[in-house]
């Protein structure tokens, strides 16, 4: 289970860290309150603040960090049952976690939907308008096209409910980089059997690690990259993770060259 705290090492602010979190830095958007930027009612009235934020967050500007590659390594070693992420930055896919191993519980920029005629679009179709600060318009009906990010007030994607089958099967739950403030995602932390160890890797204690720790819970407080390095070192996987990162860091350059060719 992951949240925005696994992407701060990649340069993307999280939401609630005092001072640096997104919600402390939205003054320029003239919002009634911070979360309004992700509220569907507000979006229908005024989509501009969200698209200004989307321009900063749009996939392609950031690279995965060691934490994302660790999940990819877990998968390569046949140890990953599924990764449940709240993040919309797409860095898990970029690090090589296959889409079928991912539940992007709060949606993704990879696809988009017209809010009027519900026509589906690829996230890349919107890139030019988002990057030039325009609100993407549906060529068919001129409605506003919204990336498939789950806003407050919207249903979570159907594949979120895979947890009903996944969590009873898990024999270890790793929770990293999340405040566990947002439901229903946060409740997944209590969905594993009581005999299953839960490992929290986070700057601070959150959710049930504050109000209801289990005897077999394990907590690794501090920076998530440092915490993952400690775990990987204990597993003897450091060389493999470094090799995976080196290979991964090669790939995005080629892809970026690809994008440039296409754009020009
Ligand atoms: N190392 C360790 N922990 C970190 C790091 C780091 N480098 N950076 C941030 N954290 C921790 C913070 O201390 C905090 O506990 O990660 C957590 C991030 O919490 P939030 O900012 O609340 O992000 P998240 O939990 O993903 O928010 C959940 O809220 O607004 C909605 O939809 C949005 O998906 C988001 C949801």
Helix and strand pattern: HHHEHEEEHEHEEHEHH
**Residue fraction in strands:** 5-15%
Supply the CATH superfamily name.
Answer: TPP-binding domain
Query: In which range does the helix fraction lie?
Result: 25-40%
User: Averaged pLDDT, please?
Assistant: 92
Q: Which cofactor or ligand species appear?
A: adenosine-5-diphosphoribose
- CATH topology heading: Rossmann fold
What oligomeric state is this? single chain
Q: Which structural class best describes the helix and strand composition?
A: alpha/beta
Rg value = 19 Å
How is the main sheet built? Answer: 3 strands, antiparallel
Strand line-up of the largest beta sheet: 4-3-5
Distance between the termini: 39 Å
Count of helices?
9
Q: Which regions are unreliable across 5 or more consecutive residues at pLDDT < 50?
A: 252-264
Q: Could you say which overall geometry the principal axes of the C-alpha atoms support?
A: globular
Structural domains: how many: 1
CATH architecture: 3-Layer(aba) Sandwich
Organism: Cyprinodon variegatus
Catalytic activity: N(6)-acetyl-L-lysyl-[protein] + NAD(+) + H2O = 2''-O-acetyl-ADP-D-ribose + nicotinamide + L-lysyl-[protein]
Cofactor: Zn(2+)
GO molecular function: histone deacetylase activity, NAD-dependent; NAD+ binding; zinc ion binding
